[in-house]
What we know:
The complex is a heterodimer.
Chain A: E1 5-7, E2 10-14, E3 19-24, E4 31-37, E5 44-49, E6 55-58, E7 61-65, E8 71-76, E9 85-92, E10 101-103, E11 107-112
Parallel strand pairs in A: 2-11
Antiparallel strand pairs in A: 1-3, 3-8, 4-5, 4-9, 6-7, 7-8, 9-10, 9-11
Chain B: E1 5-7, E2 10-13, E3 19-24, E4 31-37, E5 43-50, E6 53-56, E7 65-68, E8 75-79, E9 88-95, E10 105-106, E11 110-114
Parallel strand pairs in B: 2-11
Antiparallel strand pairs in B: 1-3, 3-8, 4-5, 4-9, 5-6, 7-8, 9-10, 9-11
Amino acid sequence: TQLLEQSPQFLSIQEGENLTVYCNSSSVFSSLQWYRQEPGEGPVLLVTVVTGGEVKKLKRLTFQFGDARKDSSLHITAAQPGDTGLYLCAGGKKNNQGGKLIFGQGTELSVKP
Amino acid sequence: NAGVMQNPRHLVRRRGQEARLRCSPMKGHSHVYWYRQLPEEGLKFMVYLQKENIIDESGMPKERFSAEFPKEGPSILRIQQVVRGDSAAYFCASSLLTGTPDTQYFGPGTRLTVL
Lengths: 113, 115
């Protein structure tokens, strides 16, 4: 069974602090996608990384794909209350016909003003 | 450019009834995925369809659940004789599948409550 272990599950921090969310697996993925989900809504794509060692930045968010394409991290600098939400990582194994995503359990982030 | 559409957003059924969930993929997308999110659990893959074809149904329960994606119209996830354990949020995602990466875009979900 392919698993993505996401940590921490819950994170409560003060505005202005930095944080990192980790996503680890024993499996190799062809791509790793990060989503953010608000209560009552569907996951919204933040970024897709595909190359081992790849780093992508989205304003205060930095995403990294591990060299072996088995793990990924999301780092948020100077967190704001608007960053509050559920962050999900999802690994994909592409073949010629596409494929399902394997999701981590999610990280529930709460940023207090 | 409309995103993935799902309806209804909320569906209430009594035990034993049928539930039909609809998904219209993003314009130009011909690949549809269904996922289920149970309370306090992560998203779990159910089924992957292309037009008129089921590609991967490894996540579908063996009984009562079926899915289709006809040549015309939305994809349908059908649950027959619903039970309380079917209560969950059901999400549809679509992708374009031209090269790498095959990014999936999600709809807002259908929240099914079985009384």
